[in-house]
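Tip: read the tokens left to right.
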């Protein structure tokens, strides 16, 4: 794979992580605000899991960004 192709794929993965986090945030809001049911252990568990997914997405996005930086600095073109 050529460097530019790899960088494009990694940048698309970063965009995907950002989109997923936005979707998860929307679901958290929907679950806690718009569903109209009282908070209980199930709702709190769902909210907690979605928050964990967001944290994992952010961590993964940062790793991808670091990888993009590293590859971008390299002179080689085949990966």
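Filled-in amino acids:
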């Amino acid at each position: 794979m050529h460097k530019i192709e790899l960088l494009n794929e990694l940048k698309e993965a970063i965009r995907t992580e950002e989109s997923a986090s936005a979707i998860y945030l929307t679901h958290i809001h929907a679950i806690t605000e718009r569903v109209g049911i009282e908070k209980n252990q199930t709702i709190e568990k769902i909210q907690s899991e979605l928050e964990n997914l967001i944290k994992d997405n952010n961590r993964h996005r940062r790793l991808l960004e670091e990888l993009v930086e590293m590859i971008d600095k390299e002179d080689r073109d085949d990966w």
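DSSP finds two helices and no strands in the chain. The first helix runs from residue 3 to 34.
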